[in-house]
Design brief:
alpha+beta, Rossmann fold, Dna Ligase, domain 1, about 15% strand, 4-stranded parallel β-sheet, about 500 residues, D-amino Acid Aminotransferase, Chain A, domain 1, about 40% helix, 14 helices
């Protein structure tokens, strides 16, 4: 393993690794174990628009379509090996909502790029948001931003993240004329080429071409537009090495035991291996990703490079408010400076075999993980986020948890109440000291201020106690009406003690 288990791409201090942080992760581990036997999960793949009943009317695809059903099957089988008992595959089409309702699905895993139309990568998540079904995947805004390369690059520029110079063109505005296009001139100045020309929304390097000079751009832009019915991206060709790095949330699994890192988790970085005459990485649809198509980086020789990639990956994960795995593609220029090419919102999660793998799975062993650890990490991290920050959206999942699964939370609430009582006691100590100083004389102005501060402390302590009790009953899943009398009695006792 090339570093600590928090970050597997560069050496890190021993005390900077992931923490099992006691009760909190114990509660999460126990909760996920309970959900394995009860929660019904749908792994969703892309439906074919030509399948009868999948759409009302067939239209164009701006994003090259693929079902991803085989990978969805890999994910589903992994979930079952981990211990989830109720997992099924579902196609992403107009009948999805009815299937989710009929099968009483609690949670979904999105492994689809959509069926047809514009911004198809966000269609399934938009539907699930409307239906109230939580999912492993990007929210509609993040999915749209990441899948539209020009939108991603514009936000990256605003955030100060290095990316290759670029411009766009929509053929609906007429033929592309680089000699007359002011935005093109502003982006590239006197740069004469070569250029990369590609769809703003796409996958697997399809319809990506190299234009050696400006003269080749108009015909190439038109050809890509005709193939995609969408905006075309033109960017500066970078002649250096090309890399990939995955980044996901901080909850990860090692041999099915959950750990928490202090920041987003970066998977092992790899370098893409190009043939002598290969300027861009050939589509995986044409050339499967075999072991000769990539190589691991040396954590000593490439230490500074690895750390730079890791920092960029964490920065993008936070800046774009992401909630699950992405794969960053980066390339260096002729001076060795790194630039982010794009962020893949749905990196290939194919289960690796002896001969074929995916760019994400290629470095798992370097992280001390296997494929099932990866899948477990992604669903556990998403559940952790939802149960911590989006409890209103997962009430139906909380109902699946037995009260004892929240025992750790109840202990935490008791700790808060204890601190409140200590706070009130400290306030009384302050008052006693002031009384001793003042003797039997009437309170001075300073004493009045202390009394006022004590009153505010007491009020705050009482309020915290009430909030803690409310949180306790909510975490334990008690019926508010049944618990109201007991809660009121305990709250009043707590407030009286604080006062």
């Amino acid at each position: 393993m090339a570093g600590s288990s928090e970050d597997c791409i560069a050496p890190r201090p021993v005390d900077d690794g992931p923490k099992t942080d006691g009760g909190e992760l114990d509660w999460l581990q126990q909760s996920v174990a309970q959900l394995m036997t009860r929660m019904r999960i749908a792994v969703i793949f892309g439906s074919n628009k030509t399948t009868p009943g999948s759409v009302l009317y067939q239209t164009s695809n701006t994003r090259s379509w693929k079902s991803y059903e085989a990978v969805a099957q890999d994910i589903a089988l992994s979930l079952e090996r981990i211990g989830f008992r109720h997992v099924q595959l579902m196609p992403d089409d107009m009948r999805l909502g009815d299937r989710l309702r009929r099968e009483q699905i609690h949670m979904a895993w999105l492994n689809t790029g959509g069926v047809q139309g514009y911004n198809s990568a966000a269609h399934a998540s938009s539907m699930l948001e409307m239906l109230g079904v939580p999912y492993v995947g990007h929210d509609p805004l993040a999915a749209t931003t990441l899948d539209n390369k020009h939108a991603f690059k514009r936000e990256a520029v605003c955030a100060g993240i290095p990316t290759a110079a670029f411009s766009t063109w929509n053929m609906a505005n007429g033929p592309f004329r680089p000699d007359l296009n002011s935005r093109f001139k502003s982006a590239f100045g006197d740069y004469a080429g070569p250029f990369i020309v590609k769809p703003v929304s796409g996958r697997a390097s399809l319809h990506v071409h190299v234009a050696e000079d400006r003269a080749a751009l108009p015909d190439m832009v038109e050809a890509i537009y005709r193939a995609t019915d969408n905006v075309v991206l033109i960017e500066k060709y970078l002649s250096g090495r090309e890399f990939c790095i995955g980044v996901a949330g901080p909850i990860t699994s090692r041999q099915r035991r959950l750990v928490r890192g202090g920041e987003p988790f970066t998977l092992s970085a790899i370098e893409r291996a190009f043939d002598v005459d290969e300027k861009i990485f050939t589509s995986m649809d044409t050339r499967p990703i075999t072991k000769d198509r990539f190589k691991q980086l040396d954590p000593v020789r490439d230490g500074a490079l690895l750390e730079r990639m890791r920092r960029l990956a964490c920065e993008i994960y936070r800046e774009f408010n992401l909630s699950t795995l992405i794969r960053l593609d980066l390339r260096s220029d002729e001076h060795g400076n790194l630039h982010v090419l794009e962020a893949n919102p749905k990196p290939d999660l194919k289960q690796p075999t002896e001969s074929v793998t995916s760019l994400i799975s290629a470095g798992l062993s370097e992280c001390g993980m296997d494929y099932d650890d990866l899948i477990f990490s992604l669903i556990a991290d998403r559940l952790d986020y939802l149960l911590t920050h989006r409890r209103e959206a997962v009430g139906h999942i909380l109902e699946l948890l037995e009260p004892r699964a929240s025992a750790v939370l109840a202990t935490s609430v008791q700790s808060v109440m204890t601190q409140c009582n200590k706070l009130a006691a400290s306030a009384e100590d302050i008052k006693d000291v002031m009384s001793a100083i003042a003797g039997d004389r009437p309170p001075t102005t300073g004493a009045d201020q202390v009394d006022d501060a004590i009153a505010r402390i007491n009020a705050a302590a009482a309020e915290i106690t009430l909030l803690a009790l409310k949180f306790s009953f909510r975490a334990l899943g008690d019926d508010p009406s049944a618990a109201r009398g007991d809660a009121t009695s305990r709250a009043e006792s707590g407030a009286a003690a604080a006062a």
